[in-house]
């Protein structure tokens, strides 16, 4: 009598899962690969493009399709390897340089992406798509440099290194167009003791606030008040603190109990009228 062998249901299920996890080889792997690509089934597409390359090793363009599928899967190392296979055989192809730029962007490496876009542009000057990606990469890289400079400037401010912070902020604001830093630039300039230049910068800050952020007009007047206090001109400082309070009331129809304006007004009054004024 023939021996019956029982297979564990768990083992059977595991085998079925393995079988389903990876598509089976096909006589026409390329058609299967293209179909999987069109339905964005990237795992199946990568699998079938590998089989298509085995079936027709001369179709080196399939390395690019394999690279695309691997990139969409997030398998960047495999994508890089596939693209490199094509690049080794077609080193002057502009599109593969473009695709390597896209890949490195996805990998979070904008500097290397930019280098590939540069090479693509050199190989295909005047190509609209290449030019577009080159320009975008240039802006992204420039912005990355600006962000690094901004962070460096703020670190200097936090460390109280006013002269170094001022130089970097001057470059960011006046050359780089980072006008949202104008208030910090003005404050740092005040801290260096250059009160005349600081006053001019606070005027620029007022213009920025009027155009972009009216609520900041309160801070404009407060900062100018602080500047005049540093210059021991308490009467002028008082005028600016009163203006700040007026702006605050105009915006909110009330003055907050913890308003900086009120505190500074009382402080200035105590400095000006020393004989009889006592701040609460």
Provide a brief overview of the structure.
Helix content is 75%, strand content 0%.
Give a description of the structure.
- With 280 residues, the chain is an all-alpha fold.
- It has 14 helices and no strands.
- The longest helix has 31 residues.
- It is elongated.
- The relative contact order is 0.04.
Low-confidence stretches: 1-21
Quaternary state of this entry equals: single chain
The SSE string, one letter per element, is HHHHHHHHHHHHHH
Please report the number of helical segments.
14
Shape: elongated
Major pleated sheet: none
Head-to-tail CA distance between termini: 107 Å
Relevant terms:
280 residues, mainly alpha, elongated
Secondary-structure map with pairings?
Blueprint: H1 9-21, H2 29-38, H3 42-55, H4 62-73, H5 76-89, H6 94-106, H7 110-123, H8 128-158, H9 162-175, H10 182-191, H11 195-212, H12 216-230, H13 234-252, H14 260-272
């Amino acid at each position: 009598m023939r021996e019956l062998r029982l297979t564990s249901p768990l083992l059977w299920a595991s085998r079925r899962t393995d079988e389903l996890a990876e598509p089976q080889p096909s006589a026409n792997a390329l058609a299967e690969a293209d179909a999987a690509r069109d339905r964005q089934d990237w795992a199946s597409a990568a699998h079938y493009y590998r089989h298509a390359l085995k079936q027709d090793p001369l179709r080196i363009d399939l390395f690019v399709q394999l690279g695309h599928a691997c990139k969409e899967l997030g398998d960047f190392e495999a994508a890089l390897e596939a693209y490199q296979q094509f690049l080794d055989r077609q080193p002057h192809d502009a599109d593969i340089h473009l695709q390597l730029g896209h890949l490195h962007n996805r990998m979070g490496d904008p500097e290397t992406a930019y280098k590939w876009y540069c090479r693509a542009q050199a190989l295909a000057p005047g190509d609209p798509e290449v030019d577009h990606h080159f320009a975008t990469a240039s802006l992204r890289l420039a912005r990355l440099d600006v962000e690094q400079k901004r962070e460096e400037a703020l670190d200097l401010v936090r460390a109280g290194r006013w002269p170094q912070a001022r130089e970097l902020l001057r470059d960011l604001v006046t050359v780089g167009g980072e006008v949202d830093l104008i208030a910090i630039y003005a404050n740092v300039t005040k801290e260096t003791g250059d009160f005349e230049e600081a006053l001019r910068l606070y005027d620029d800050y007022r213009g920025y606030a009027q155009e972009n952020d009216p609520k900041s007009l309160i801070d404009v007047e407060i900062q100018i008040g602080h500047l005049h206090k540093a210059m021991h001109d308490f009467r002028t400082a008082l005028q600016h603190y009163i203006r700040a309070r007026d702006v605050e009331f105009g915006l909110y129809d009330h003055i907050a109990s913890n308003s900086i304006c009120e505190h500074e007004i009382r402080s200035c009054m105590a400095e000006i009228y020393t004989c009889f004024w006592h701040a609460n």
